[in-house]
Amino acid sequence: MAAAEPPPPTGMGFLGLLSFRRSATAVASFDPAQDDELLVLDALQAHVADRLAALSALTTQGPVLSLPFLSKLLDAVLSSDAAFRAVLAVAPVAAALPRPPADRLAADLLDRAVKALDVLNAASLTLASLRGAHRAALTAASCLLVPALHRAHFARARRAIARLFPDDGKLSSSSSTPCPSSRTMRALSITVSKNWSAGRHSHGVAAHLSLPPQTPSAAAAGAGCGLGLALYTMSSVLVFTMWALVAAVPCQDRASAATNPPVAPPKQAQWAAPMASLQERIAEEWRRKDKKGSSSGPSTTAGLLAEMQALERAARHLNSLLEEIAEEDDDQDSVTIVGEERAREVTERAEQLAAACRALEEGLAPLERQVRAVFHRVVASRAEVVRCMEHSARAASAGAPASASAAPPPHHHSF
Question: Which candidate, 216, 196, 343, 299, places its Cα nearest to that of 256?
Fold first, then answer.
């Protein structure tokens, strides 16, 4: 006969209760199957903590919201989902999905996944539309990297640069070509309603995100204590990722999104510290960018993507030099050939713009593929959760008559 489980100490929170129940179970029972369940649940927490810690270390070496960072973040989502699917593959764990408190947390995750798909769709369309900005900047740089520069090259470069800054009336007045941002909005309107808001969907993904309820009773804790934490962990990863994507790329109505961190992880969670650090870094950069934009007029970009900001800075620096040369030419007789010193300055800044174009081009296509991969993985993971819940519900209903006549009660697993 199994030894009775000792009562937990008073004043213990959810995660402390979970840790206590695991240690108590280890003493009272040596069920190898139950040990496997605890191992796979702990493996998910450790995996998420390791991936977020690696991301946090990456931000100390450069910009927070860069293409390499977003690529590693989406890769972390994919690998964390694989660890979560391993949790669902354990039959006793999956059987707890339809039971409290896991049932409510699973329903929240399913709803969150649907809203995340909308954000991923908008982000994918936006990243594709950034190729228009890349082409405009590359045109400006290419037409200035020629052996003999003259005023016709400058005029063409300034027209190309004007397409990068639709909010700057001085720059955009010289170009009648639709700007990349307007192309972005038209691209989004193909599959996204004009009333669709990245800010609202970002809020919707993060809504009702809360820790699993404390379960003082043994039956409730055994039904889904660790599974509840696993569901909460995956919801937190999804919320954080969607928030970071909205911060980085110029999604439609991004301005209404909250700059405050959306996830408040418990300090006892293994992944709490790295996620809190990442959120604070992104929120700080977001607030600083918004403050700079409000004090200096229209913001230079609708997102915080580091490579796009670098491209815009290089384009503005180049355009300011071209304006200086144009003013000098107005004060002198019209000339077609540029002086050697000025040509060297223009070439240097054009090379800086070309380097920014290469950095954007190298990281954009892989990130687009990863966004699509995460989209399909969220769909598959959501379908797997639904399948497990339906299978467990059918098994419970089919086994109800048999369990009524059976003498020994089913064993409550403490995961």
Answer: 196
Tokens standing for 289?
């960018």
Residue 271 has pLDDT above 70, yes or no: yes
Residues contacting residue 226 through CB under 8 Å, at least 6 positions apart? 18, 22, 37, 38, 41, 93, 414, 415
| DSSP bridge pairs for 150 | 337
Query: Residue 100 has what pLDDT?
Result: 85
* Percent over 90 (pLDDT), the chain: 42
CB 125 within 8 A of CB 191: yes
Closest alpha carbon to 102 in 410, 392, 403: 392
For the residues of 94-158, what is the DSSP string, one character each? HHTTTSTTHHHHHHHHHHHHHHHHHHHHHHHHHHHHHHHHHHHHHHHHHTTSSSS-BHHHHHHHH
The total of other beta-carbon atoms located within 10 Å of residue 403's CB is 11
pTM for the model: 0.80
Task: Return the CA Rg of the chain.
Answer: 27
Q: pLDDT per residue over 301-355, tens digit each? A: 457 899 999 999 999 999 999 998 888 766 665 555 667 888 899 999 999 999 9
Long-range contacts of 339-346 (CB under 8 A, 24+ apart): 343/149, 345/321, 346/144, 346/149, 346/154, 346/318, 346/321, 346/322
Tokens of 200: 């609202």
Question: Rounded to an integer, what distance in angstroms lies between the CA atom of residue 130 and that of residue 369?
Answer: 14
**Distance (Å, whole) CA 328 – CA 345:** 15
Q: What is the dihedral of CA 10, 12, 14, 17, to 10 degrees?
A: -70
Distance CA 375, CA 115 (A): 11
């909460």: which residue's tokens? 232
- The per-residue DSSP string of 246-284 comes to HHHS--TTGGGS--S-S----TTSTTHHHHHHHHHHHHH
Taking Cα atoms as reference points, which of 267, 256, 321 lies closest to residue 290?
A: 256
Q: Which amino acid is at 5?
A: E
- pLDDT tens digits, one per residue of 19-46: 434 444 433 344 555 677 889 999 999 9
Tell me the C-alpha to C-alpha distance, in Å, between residue 4 and each of 24, 30, 218, 220.
Answer: 10, 14, 11, 16
Model confidence pLDDT, tens digit, residues 203-237: 888 888 888 876 544 334 443 458 999 999 999 99
